[in-house]
Amino acid sequence: MSLHSYRVIGTESKKEETVYVEIEDTPQECQHCSSPNLVSKGPYQRRARHLDTFGPPSRLVIETRRWECRDCRWSFVPETPEFRPWRRSTEPWRECIYRDHHEGICASALARLRDLGSASVGRIFAEFTSRKASERQSLECPRILGIDEHRVHGGMPFATTFCDLRNHRIFDLVPGRSEPELRGFLAALKGREKVQVICMDLSSPYRALARRWFPHARIVADRFHVIRSLQHHFLGRDALVTMWRFTKNNGITEGFHRKMKLIQRRAYGFRNFYNYRLRVIAQCG
User: Where are the domains of the chain?
Assistant: First the structure.
């Protein structure tokens, strides 16, 4: 059952497996004023869906108590591990829904298998992808960075991809491709002064952006764009020379762009960039 901090007190098997549990620890102080003067106000029961047990679905019935503080008269129910407030399912069960949808099971099929609505599948997936995306705010910029642009859709023509070339994953996705559009993201980016190598094409706006926001990084010209540029003229000679000294290239970022196109086709497009960014980070990050 993979439940910690709970003690099983009984089971019942019908169409689904019902497991009765209680919290091992009792509260020692008031959640409002931290007073140890607590008195029980009676039993409290909470039900939630949980992971399947050898086939049949399971449901947890958590037996706990409501407590009242004698000093501040605050009443509360102790926090239940593996639960979030106002939820009727456990975190392991919700994470299982997220993983199944992430691995390719469509929302309608998953909703039939798990006996819930397609909208609930979408909300659970959005919740976990939002958590994953929020982790990017505390991460430092990769030391070896790939920067490239790609087209999203007609309403938002271009987006800039920041790729971690060392670990082969997408670091972040930002709408726009000009410096004014990217300035807010770059100003808040942690560890950009530690970036050592940037792989990018030879466009003048991106070169100027890299020199300003990544002062200690060497700019490496992407081989694909270099060969195409050599057919017309010689530009960015320093970046061309650096290209032959470093083995890193932007092929990883270009490969992720191909996967991003498949994500868009599979979703039949995205109405806003935020949902698109969450899906890309979930599947490519």
Answer: 1-83, 90-138, 139-284
Q: Which helix (H) or strand (E) holds 43?
A: strand 38-50
C-alpha to C-alpha distance for 227 and 223, rounded to whole angstroms: 6
Full DSSP string of 221-276: E-HHHHHHHHTT----HHHHHHHHH----THHHHHHHHHHHHHHHHTT--SSHHHH
**Crossing angle (nearest 10°) for helices 179-188 and 204-213:** 20
Which of helix, strand or coil describes residue 210? Answer: helix
Residue type, 151: R
Predicted TM-score of the model (pTM): 0.64
Token pair 């039949």 in the structure block, residue: 268
Q: Domain 139-284, CATH 3.40.1350.10 — does that match?
A: no
Residue 5, token pair as written in the block: 């901090």
Which of the residue ranges 113-117, 170-174, 192-196, 233-237 would you say has the lowest mean pLDDT?
Answer: 233-237
Backbone angles phi, psi at 62, to 5 degrees: -95, 120
Q: What is the Cα Rg of the chain in Å? A: 26
Q: Which of 161, 99, 170 is nearest to 133 (CA)?
A: 170
Place of tokens 């939002």: 130
Q: Which residue type is seen at 67?
A: W
pLDDT digits (tens, 9 = 90+) for 16-68: 888 898 888 888 899 889 899 999 999 998 888 888 877 778 888 988 899 99
Strand order from edge to edge, sheet including 197-200: 169-175, 156-164, 144-153, 197-200, 218-221
Burial 1-19 (b: 16+ CB within 10 A, else e): eebeebeeeeeeeeebbbb
Q: Both tokens of residue 211?
A: 């020199």
Spatial separation of the C-alpha atoms in residues 238 and 223, rounded to whole Å: 14
Count CB-CB contacts under 10 A for residue 160.
21
